[in-house]
User: Which sequence fits this backbone?
């Protein structure tokens, strides 16, 4: 009887402690939520930007004006015209400013290296030999059961 009374009393104490903890956490959450809304309200601009009513909670989609599209199109046309003019111009030593700063005046730019036909053939032959060796090695190994 005494053991039962002690276990009931311990259970009641545990429940009371849990309820107190729940209340404390609820107060802390409420304080954080109200603090966040106060901060966001104070940091918001005084005159909000006009916007259309939201549909399904989504803000109205922004669209570019006709004048804005025209400006962008004109800029693209000028950009492409400059690129075409550069390509059509006679091939001069077109060097960027960064290359001019790094290049020495007496040393010409290095030519692009090309692989000779003999070197290309040697590389191909070596690759074929490697693949043939791999195929031979795979034929001799027994396949593992999966």
Assistant:
């Amino acid at each position: 009887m005494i053991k039962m009374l002690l276990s009931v009393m311990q259970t009641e104490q545990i429940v009371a402690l849990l309820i107190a903890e729940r209340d404390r956490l609820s107060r802390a959450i409420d304080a954080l939520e109200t603090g966040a809304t106060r901060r966001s309200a104070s940091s918001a601009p005084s005159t909000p930007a006009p916007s259309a009513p939201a549909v399904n909670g989504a803000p109205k989609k922004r669209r570019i004006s006709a004048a804005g599209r025209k400006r962008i199109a004109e800029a693209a046309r000028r950009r492409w015209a400059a690129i075409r003019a550069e390509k059509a111009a006679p091939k001069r030593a077109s060097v960027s400013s960064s290359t001019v700063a790094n290049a020495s005046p007496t040393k010409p730019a290095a030519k692009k290296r090309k692989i000779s036909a003999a070197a290309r053939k040697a590389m191909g032959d070596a690759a074929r030999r490697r693949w043939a060796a791999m195929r031979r090695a795979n034929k001799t190994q027994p396949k593992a059961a999966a």
Summary: The chain has a mean pLDDT of 79. The helical segments are 2-43, 66-88, 97-102, 117-140. The chain has four helices and no strands.
